[in-house]
Amino acid sequence: MADEALFLLLHSEMVAGLYRAAEHGEGENGRCTTKLESMGFRVGQGLIERFTKDTARFKDELDIMKFICKDFWTTVFKKQIDNLRTNHQGIYVLQDNKFRLLTQMSAGKQYLEHAPKYLAFTCGLIRGGLSNLGIKSIVTAEVSSMPACKFQVMIQKM
């Protein structure tokens, strides 16, 4: 329980610190999102390496996505992804109806414009994990109502 609170506080402070620095002329907002995504990418690579060291190899892409939605998500966010959809052509949509990093914000629409700041790290986390499993991807996030969000994963064929 304490580790979850620490993670939420650390994440919140990372986002606030980067955007505060950008306001004081030490960067620009687009770079803040890129920095957060890059941090998440590195953390995702490390976590996947750690979580899969005693796991059998995955059969296919769908098995990897199921692992991300169940085991990986549960370890990081203490719950599974609520819904996984695919078009079976390399696009997956992961839906979390009560995303932990957004629950600290109001459920109203007034903070909807700030939500992307809080999703960049997680996009990187997913992309980094997939990268370490041999899947190159593009991960984007969208929020239509707080605290629910969707992560769209587009697999890039090599």
TrEMBL record:
It comes from Catharus fuscescens. Component of a transport protein particle (TRAPP) complex that may function in specific stages of inter-organelle traffic. Specifically involved in the early development of neural circuitry, likely by controlling the frequency and amplitude of intracellular calcium transients implicated in the regulation of neuron differentiation and survival. It comes from the Eukaryota. The gene is Trappc6b. Belongs to the TRAPP small subunits family. BET3 subfamily. This is Trafficking protein particle complex subunit 6B. One of its GO terms (biological process) is nervous system development. The keyword Transferase does not apply. Keywords: Endoplasmic reticulum, Golgi apparatus, Neurogenesis.
